[in-house]
Every structure is written in C-alpha cells, then in structure tokens.
Design a protein that fits this description.
alpha/beta, Spore Coat Polysaccharide Biosynthesis Protein SpsA, Chain A, 3-stranded mixed sheet, elongated
C-alpha cells in the first residue's frame, strides 16, 4: 500500500551515530603525526647536544694552544687626573710608558678624567677607566690587547714584554678553581678555560680583585666575527645601575659583582698571581680569621725584577705622598735604563719567586726597598 504523504518525522530523533571506522582512521593519523613530531624533536635535540659537546671540546680541550702565540698589537691605556697630579708626575709616567711601548712596539693611549666628566658624574672619577677603554677601543680598533694600567703605577722591568711574560705562558699562569673574590667567594674560576677563550686577565690582592692593572682582549669586527666581547664587557661594567648603586669601592666592587654573577664574564676571565703584573710598593699584613683561627698571608710587595710597582691608595692615605713614592722608583728605573742601554747587566730574567713573610717581617718592613 502506498501513502499519499510520507510518514511524519518523530519529534525525538535518535542520537547521531558516529562512523566508527572513519573515527579510528582519524585517530590513527593523529597518532602518527604526533609520533613523527616527537621523532623530529628528539633528533633535533640530539643534534644540538652533540654540536654543543663537540664545540665545547674544541674550545676547552687540551688540544688547543697553551698560550697566545706570536707578537700582538698592544695598547697601553693610562688615565690621568690633572686636577690632583702635577705636570712633573705626569711627565714621569708618560716617559716610563713611552719607553716601554717603543721598546716592544706597543702603542700608548693617554687621556684625562675630565674628558669623561659628563659621563661619569656624579660617580667617583675613578670610573673614568671604563669609558677611557671604550674610547681606546674605538681609536685603535685593530689592536688585539689593551693593558689598562693605573697612573699611580710604574713599569719597573722594561725587558719583559707582555707576550713573553704573560700571554704566551698564560696556560701555566692561570689560577684555576679558586674563589673569584678573596678570600672565600662561593664563585670559583673555571678549571677548563683555555688561553684561546681568554678575554680578561686580572689579579687579586689580599681582599679584592686588583683592577688597577688588567689586560683586555679585543676582537676586531670581521665577516666571521660580528660581535665584540670587550665592548659588551665595558658597557655592562659601566651600567648606570652599578654607578648609581654607590658601591663602597666604586668600579672595583662593581667589577667584582660582574665577574661573580654574570657567567658571560666569568667564562672569559683568567686570574694570575698579583706580582706578575701588579706588585704593590708595600707589604700586605697577615690577617687572622677570628672564626677559624687561620692566618692568611698574601705576597704583594714589589721585588727587583717585577714588571710593575703600584702605589695603591697613595692618594687616600694622608701619611703617604704619591709623587715622593713615584720619584723613588722613577730614579731606580732611570738607572736601570742606563744599565740596559750600556749592556752592563742582564735584566731579562723573570721575577723572583714569591716569598713568604712573617708578621714581624711585614710589620717592620719599609715601603721601599731597592
């Protein structure tokens, strides 16, 4: 029998019935795509890990050079403060630097704190060393190393070049896995750093990083080297936050903070013995730890044959006179130059080995011993 009209649809249709075979196919494809993505991600991760390991081995393995070989283009950077330094004092320092630079084929860069007053003020003028180095990097962009040496320091052994004295034997001079800031910083220097990766060479005195003499490596811009770590380091050190923080020792404490808590700086840092290129003209008294009872000593006093004598804090201590102390060593230096030019004595020997001093010797030792 046929009806004139189709049957009326129910007001309660049955729930939609899914196609189970089609749904299973979609799920299978989705799982395949997920597995493929995981495999690609795993392979990419493995590639990056292997690449990092291989590059690290190439950079830090013992197969690399143990020193920085060959002659280098070196610039001696000195910042004067003409408001407190006399013309005679500046003349002595420049004469000393010019002779050393001429003897070894180095360049010199002299400037004054007033040049950077607008950049440094209201911070202490000692901050001027940072923009001065940035200035030197700009003028001598092709030079490879910059030696920042305080104006209150004198080069006392002109026979020692930086290449032979520090750069070439750098591997053997590195102080590895020691507190960055003495005596007990929890941050230590790296034990696997190689000279090829070194960009900053410093020393330590009894309580701080001795920043009045340090060497900064420059990486000139090339098609394969588009960054410059030295410029980054100086910009980070001169950060307005550090200058506004008013560290007790200004740029010195800011530098200590930087090398301890910024791995990008610590990874390029090498510490060497202080007397290698930053001897003081006074002995460091022993210090006894009130908790452990251990007496700490530090060999910092200049001895004949050392490369540099530094008159640290001679402008802070009212009992000291920088010009008198400089004059004593400058006279010794002039006599040394005369003997060198006359070939009457050989001064090419390395500095004497560090000596330990008892408390009585340190207390009774004069500041100057020729």
């Amino acid at each position: 029998m046929q009806f004139a009209l189709p049957p009326r649809k129910t007001s309660h249709p049955p729930p939609y019935a899914r196609n189970t075979s089609s749904n299973a196919l979609v799920q299978r494809r989705r799982r395949q795509l997920q597995i493929g993505a995981y495999v690609i991600l795993a392979l990419l991760t493995l590639y990056l890990v292997l690449r990092y390991i291989l590059l690290t081995d190439a950079d830090y393995s013992g197969t690399g050079p143990s020193g920085i070989d060959g002659p280098q283009e070196i610039v001696l950077v000195t910042v004067f403060d003409e408001d407190v330094m006399s013309k005679e004092y500046i003349r002595m320092v420049k004469t000393n630097r010019n002779h050393y630079a001429a003897q070894h084929g180095y360049k010199t860069f002299y400037t004054n704190t007033s040049t950077y007053f607008n950049l440094v003020d209201p911070s202490p003028s000692s901050w001027s060393i940072v923009p001065a180095l940035r200035h030197a990097l700009t003028i001598h962009a092709s030079s490879t190393f910059f030696w920042a040496l305080s104006a209150d320091a004198l080069i006392t052994n002109p026979a020692l070049s930086l290449e032979e004295h520090i750069l070439q034997p750098l591997e053997s001079l590195m102080k590895k896995d020691i507190p960055v800031v003495p005596p007990d910083s929890v941050i230590h220097t790296y034990s696997h750093l190689k000279p090829s990766r070194t960009h900053l060479i410093l020393s330590q005195d009894m309580n701080n990083i001795a920043h009045t003499s340090f060497i900064l490596r420059n990486t000139p811009f090339t098609p394969s080297t588009t960054d410059n770590w030295a410029q980054y380091f100086l910009d980070a050190w001169f950060d307005p936050l550090y200058r506004a923080y008013a560290f007790q020792k200004a740029e010195n404490h800011a530098l200590e903070h930087l090398v301890q808590w910024h791995p990008t700086v610590l990874a390029k840092l090498v510490l060497v013995e202080q007397r290698r290129f930053n001897s003081y003209n006074h002995a460091t008294p022993p210090v006894r730890d009130s908790i452990t009872g251990i007496t700490r000593t530090h060999d910092s006093m200049w001895q004949g044959g050392d490369l540099v004598v530094n008159f640290k804090e001679c402008r802070i201590d009212p009992k000291r006179n920088c010009e008198d102390e400089m004059g004593q060593y400058f006279s010794l230096w002039e006599k040394l130059i005369g003997r060198l030019e006359g070939r009457t004595q050989d001064f090419s020997a390395p500095p004497a080995a560090p000596q330990k001093h008892s408390e009585a010797e340190v207390a009774g030792r004069p500041r100057f011993q020729p």
